[in-house]
Structure formats: structure tokens, C-alpha cells
Design goal:
Elements lengths: L1 H29 L8 H37 L15 H22 L5 H29 L3 H35 L1 H4 L2
Helix pairs in contact: 2-3, 2-4, 2-5, 3-4, 4-5
Length: 191
């Protein structure tokens, strides 16, 4: 009997929450004339966050591939089990770097559809430049690692890759934290 009461209480709470959410969105659609209260504005903000998160993921993937290649070359062990590992220690690095370059190019088309303010556009431009720097560093590292010049590759990693990645993370954090705060305040704003 106690389990039935808990189930009914849970269903009531979930139902009430769903009803409140539906009522909020109906009110937001009805009051869409308010600045930023339309579904389109919500979707636009979510898409901007998504683009910045994808840029962060690209830089994270590149940095991981670079560090993995350095470890594999130094230790002689193959850490990656993906198909890039089949091509030797630099296989994963060259494959990840090429894919990141392609993904970055594809993101430029997505960005053209977004309505960005001046601050977001400049942050996005900076983030793109930093990831392009990571791509360039990845290609340079691949060349040095293929020639067994591990010290030069480590130098590129320390002097180029790490600062670029740090800059990407700070840029993404600045933009995304502001946008997420904006989304969290949206229900109160659109009442």
C-alpha cells in the first residue's frame, strides 16, 4: 500500500511539473513579443552554446591526440585501439588533426546562420584562430615525430599547443557561462 501511495505521489509531482513547464512555454510563446522570449531566441542561444562546445571538444581532442602521440613515441607502446593506431604512433595524431581541420571548416558554415552580437563574434573568431593554431601544431608535430625528433615535437606541444588550448578553454568558458546564465533566467524574464 505504501508503494502505491509513493507511486501516486510521484506521478502527481511529475504531472504537475510537466503542466507547469507546458504552461510556461505557452506563456512564452504568447508573450513572444518580449525581447528574447520567443522559442526562436531560445533555440538561437542553444545553438550558439553548441557551437562553442564543439570548438572546445575539437581542441580537447587535438590536445589528447598530441599528448598520446608523444607518449606512444617515447614509450613505444600503442595506447589507441582505434584504426589510427594501425598506422603507427602518429596515425591517431594525423587522423585527428585532419578531421579537426575538416570539422572546423564545417563549423564556419553553421556560424554564418547565427545572429551573433559583436562580443560573441569576436570570441568565436578568437576561438577559431586558436583551434587553427592547434591544427597547425598537430601537423608540425606529426612531421617531427615521423622523423623521430621527439624533443622538437615536445617543444611544439609545450610552446604552441598548450597555450592555444588554454586560450580556447577560457574563451569558451566566458561565452558559454554567460549564455547559460541567460537561459537559466529566461523563465523569470518571460513571465
Amino acid at each position: 500500500m505504501k508503494g502505491l501511495r509513493l507511486a501516486v505521489r510521484y506521478a502527481t509531482i511529475v504531472g504537475a511539473a510537466s503542466l507547469c513547464s507546458a504552461m510556461f512555454w505557452q506563456a512564452a510563446i504568447a508573450k513572444g513579443h518580449k525581447d528574447g522570449c520567443s522559442i526562436g531566441a531560445f533555440a538561437e542561444t542553444a545553438e550558439i552554446i553548441s557551437v562553442f562546445r564543439k570548438i572546445e571538444m575539437l581542441s580537447n581532442t587535438l590536445l589528447h591526440a598530441q599528448s598520446q602521440a608523444l607518449i606512444e613515441m617515447q614509450s613505444g607502446l600503442v595506447l589507441g585501439i582505434d584504426d589510427g593506431g594501425f598506422f603507427g604512433p602518429t596515425g591517431t595524431l594525423s587522423k585527428s588533426t585532419g578531421k579537426a581541420q575538416s570539422d572546423l571548416r564545417n563549423l564556419t558554415f553553421v556560424v554564418k546562420r547565427l545572429a551573433l552580437d559583436a562580443d560573441a563574434a569576436s570570441r568565436l573568431s578568437n576561438a577559431f584562430a586558436e583551434v587553427e593554431g592547434l591544427v597547425t601544431a598537430g601537423f608540425e608535430m606529426t612531421g617531427h615525430l615521423e622523423k623521430d625528433q621527439i624533443a622538437e615535437a615536445v617543444g611544439i606541444y609545450a610552446q604552441k599547443s598548450l597555450p592555444h588550448c588554454k586560450q580556447v578553454f577560457s574563451t569558451v568558458y566566458t561565452e558559454v557561462s554567460g549564455r547559460e546564465r541567460e537561459l537559466s533566467l529566461l523563465p523569470a524574464k518571460c513571465r
